[in-house]
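Bug #77: duplicate submission created two jobs. Keeping one. Sequence:
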Amino acid sequence: MPIFPKVSLRPEVENYLKEGFVNKEVVSGSGKEEAENKFETLLNRLSHPPSFTTVRVNTHLATVQHVKTLLLDEFQKQFNGLSVPVLQHPDLPDVLLIPVIGPSYESWRHCFCVL
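Kept job's structure:
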């Protein structure tokens, strides 16, 4: 039983994505079944919320530290008392990461447990 529902896309969007995953070049390299499995995996992953929200900083306009401070101040205003971390990406110096606070696998798993 899947935890998250299958993503529902407009037909033209789903067809566009499928053409990229199940085309002649991909099928000749990995086989039709493998290509279709990869496409289904994509649809499955698109239905899951991300673990992080990413913020790309335009360093020509502001420093990463300044944007980080602005984000922390805004989170403090909106979520008084809740500490939301803003992390710097370990490999991309102009990217900030904000962990998603919300439904996770563990919280969804508990919905289906019989107590």
